[in-house]
Amino acid sequence: MPRTPEIGIALALALGVLAAPLPAQAQRPAKVPRAGIIVPTASPLNQHLIEAFRQGLRELGYIEGQNIAMEFPYGTERLPQLVEELINLKVDIIISVGPPVTRAAKKAGSSIPIVMIAGSGDPVAEALIASLARPGGTLTGLTAVPLELYFDKRLELLKETVPKISRVAVLWDQSMRPIGTRPLEPAGASLKIQLRELEVRSPSELEGAFKSIAREGAGAVLILESPMLFTYRTRLAELALKGRLPAISVFREFAEAGGLMTYGPSLIDQWRRAATYVDKILRGAKPADLPVEQPTRFELVINLKTANALGLTIPRSILIRADQVIQ
What are the pLDDT digits (tens) for 302-319? Predict the structure, then answer.
């Protein structure tokens, strides 16, 4: 029987309906993963690190607000609550910044993957992971540098710069090193330097600490890393200059803020590298199988302007090794 025009039109319309896309409301929207980044402080001085993390994500195709969402709770005074808040928000991944945050995130016992940034100098010894190669559990990421490993290097730089120093004050944050600085004493003894440790718990104690350093007659100050001391690096540099004290710390930002010199890994590199862990985990990798990275690149930064203000001449042997000299 020949097909009439009416039947052909009806058939075309039916096929068109079947081939037409489903209405937008019937399509299931793609789930946007949510990351929770616990930072110790919301200080604008640290925003360059968060931007480095965002840049790392952008290079991998993630745009905040489009295909990834991020929560930024902060404040070390209530870490357990911050972790619990992220767990209740059902984030897909937690990024923990610094040892105290990493310990709190791990202690919560959640099944949510955790990526640490400078999370611990020795995460195996702290029982945070099983091994660097195969961390096991939910935690992976990037470690800090074991303090004892490069402490002697920083002391050597001070001694080379100020050969006559015999006493160095070591300023440290109690939340970072509850055992104190006793493990550092052998490094001081080998250089015939007496260490005078000064513990602080809050920014309000910094000025008093430097007054104590002056009373003790220390010839220089070595500032150990911590989120709080990093955030207040400009104040520390000012207090060191006021006290006519050569000061060395870990991260280049201290020298950029006016400190004499720094020797340590790049925090910006660590934040950018953390984005690769986030990408792998969101694509299905298990934290237990992702090897933990240790810093491999260290930079020496010298602030010549501060050296001149202190009346110091930086030896050429140090200047030629510097990655950056701030004029």
Answer: 999 999 999 999 999 999
The CA-atom distances, in angstroms, between 245 and each of 45, 165, 219 are: 23, 11, 6
Chain segment 86-118, per-residue pLDDT in tens: 999 999 999 998 888 899 999 998 999 999 998
Tell me the chain's radius of gyration from C-alpha atoms.
26
Helix ranges restricted to H, the chain: 5-19, 47-59, 79-88, 99-107, 147-161, 185-190, 206-216, 227-231, 233-242, 252-256, 267-282, 304-309, 316-319
pLDDT on residue 24: 45
Per-residue 3-state assignment (H helix, E strand, C coil) for 158-179: HHHHCCCCCEEEEEEECCCCCC
Domain with CATH 3.40.50.2300 in the chain: 34-144+267-289, 147-266+298-326
Q: Which CATH class is domain 34-144+267-289?
A: alpha beta
Token output for 264: 């340590």
Token pair in block for residue 107: 């202690």
pLDDT computed for residue 29 by the predictor: 56
CATH top-level class for 147-266+298-326? alpha beta
Q: Rounded to 5 degrees, what angle do the CA atoms 134, 225, 74 make?
A: 80
Taking the CA atoms of 203, 207, 210 and 216 in sequence, report the sign of the dihedral they define.
negative
